[in-house]
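User: Design a sequence. Structure:
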């Protein structure tokens, strides 16, 4: 009897461990983007995947056209110029630009297209950042920001791709984890 109870308990523990390993929490982060007037112009969501971090933007009330998108080093978004966000996130000391032979910065992302009504949706898989521990984490000490610039990025010119003023900014913060 004692032996069969131990077997049942062992089976239950193994079942729970197997179930728990399938329900591993998925890291997530979020940012509320504001313009120079402090008006909310959208959201950024970050989700850890096996291939990298999926970044999804939903935006409104921005100027139509192409805009550079970058992750910056400081977790501050002080309007109106957002210079408090610091330089581009670059923990590996690379050169700027997705087309640069010596780049890119970890925070360099493809351009965003805003439609004529001022809205836009954007999704990109960023393989040079992380939501976990380590020097590639956008959730590390001091925080990080996501910044939208006035114009497109030329993807070559160091340090910021001639992307113009910073027109929207959001501090990246850890969000509640969800199961896969």
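Assistant: Done.
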């Amino acid at each position: 009897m004692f032996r069969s109870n131990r077997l049942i308990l062992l089976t239950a523990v193994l079942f729970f461990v197997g179930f728990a390993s399938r329900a591993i929490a998925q890291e997530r982060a979020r940012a509320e983007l504001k313009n120079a007037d402090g008006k909310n112009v959208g959201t950024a969501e970050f989700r850890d995947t096996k291939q990298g971090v999926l970044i999804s933007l939903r935006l409104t009330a921005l100027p139509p056209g192409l805009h550079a998108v970058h992750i910056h080093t400081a977790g501050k978004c002080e309007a109106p110029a957002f210079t408090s966000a610091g330089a581009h996130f670059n923990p590996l000391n690379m050169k700027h630009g997705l087309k640069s032979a010596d780049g890119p910065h970890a925070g360099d992302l493809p351009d965003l297209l805003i439609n004529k009504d001022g809205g836009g949706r954007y999704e990109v898989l960023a393989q040079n950042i992380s939501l976990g521990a380590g020097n590639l984490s956008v959730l590390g000490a001091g925080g990080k920001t996501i910044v939208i610039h006035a114009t497109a990025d030329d993807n070559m010119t160091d340090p910021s791709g001639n992307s113009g003023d910073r027109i929207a900014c959001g501090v990246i913060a850890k969000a509640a984890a969800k199961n896969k």
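The longest strand covers residues 40-48. The beta strands are 25-26, 28-35, 40-48, 53-59, 65-72, 108-114, 120-126, 144-149, 166-174, 178-179.
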